[in-house]
Amino acid sequence: MGSRLTEEQAAFAAAVRDFAKRECGTREQRAALAEGGRDAHHPEVYARLADLGWLGVCLPEECGGAGGGLADACLFLEETSYGMVPCGGFITTVITAKAYERFGTERQRREVLTGAARGDVLAIAMSEPEAGSDVGALRCRAQRTADGTWLIDGQKTWISNAHCAKSILLVARTGEDKHGGLTMFHLPADTEGVGIRGIETMGGREVNDVFLTGVRLPADAVVGQVDNGWRQLMAGLTYERLFLAANMLGLARRAFDDTVAYVREREQFGRPVGSFQALRHRIADLATEIECTRLLVREVALDCDAEPDKLFPREASMAKLKATEVAKRAALEGMQMMGGYGYTTEFDMERHLRAAVVSTVYGGTSEIQRDVIGRTYGL
Length: 379
Prior knowledge:
Layout: H1 7-24, H2 27-34, H3 43-51, H4 70-82, H5 89-103, H6 106-118, E1 122-125, E2 141-144, E3 150-156, E4 167-173, E5 182-188, E6 194-201, E7 204-217, E8 222-223, H7 229-265, E9 267-268, E10 271-272, H8 277-306, H9 313-338, H10 349-357, H11 366-375
Parallel strand pairs: 1-4
Antiparallel strand pairs: 2-3, 3-7, 4-5, 5-8, 6-7, 9-10
Helix pairs in contact: 1-4, 4-7, 4-8, 5-6, 5-7, 7-8, 7-9, 7-10, 8-9, 9-10, 9-11
């Protein structure tokens, strides 16, 4: 697709931009909706997106979705991120929904995907205090009881949007094999024995500890196959990394545009600071990097849509690595070029940096992405 969109996609992107401008186009609106960026998700705004049918952009039509592809979902993520729409629950929802779509039972698909299209937030719980990049080391245990139900105990951490989720896709240990003993479970967030506690971060309130104490789930809570959770996770990494890349592409674009707007207006030594070669060249380099990122993310999305049963580990990791590193660079460069004003809450740049700096960590660190890419070359 490159930088070209179909007529339908162009109209969709324009509609999302109009929504963003209307709902959160001013700093005053954004401050009221997101407390200066501390809350990435606003339920009322999210409900309006659901009413427009946009939350089901890539979900099946039989579940209330629009039936679009990954490229359409990436376009939505890019534009809402650029427009600073407080719909942070969407990214974990669409990542999680894809797992239900691929591996869930008919009942699970109908319940969870229909709810997601209508505005339910979904979360996925993998990481633990001693199991981050090494997901296979997780200890949260699910034991099958005599009556066929499951008894679950353990702790999850860094779980994005668990505090506003209707349900959580839980990955727990059901066997002793490091990778062959993991299973996915459908866990309603209000299940007895589930405790959710927010973790304060420089980016605000988005991630959580999830405590599971004597949690009981029915036999049919398994998503996919028992002890096959690792393979199912690996199959979903393409979606996760691609969606995260699209989200950070939007942020990079926004940080860049905010920087350009500032250096055009800010004057020192009798002329706009953007006219000085030192800044002009930095702007040129950033523009080129962002355009390269845009082409990469959109081409990978189209490839995935063209071959939905194929995994794209190299390409998805490249997109995630490139987009997150570029977003972080765009925010850091923007802050540097804006000087002290970039550090103040009077402008959005400090918020962009808070959102971008962690993107090279979650969803697989940049080091993990490089390792994945290297292994695809037999290294």
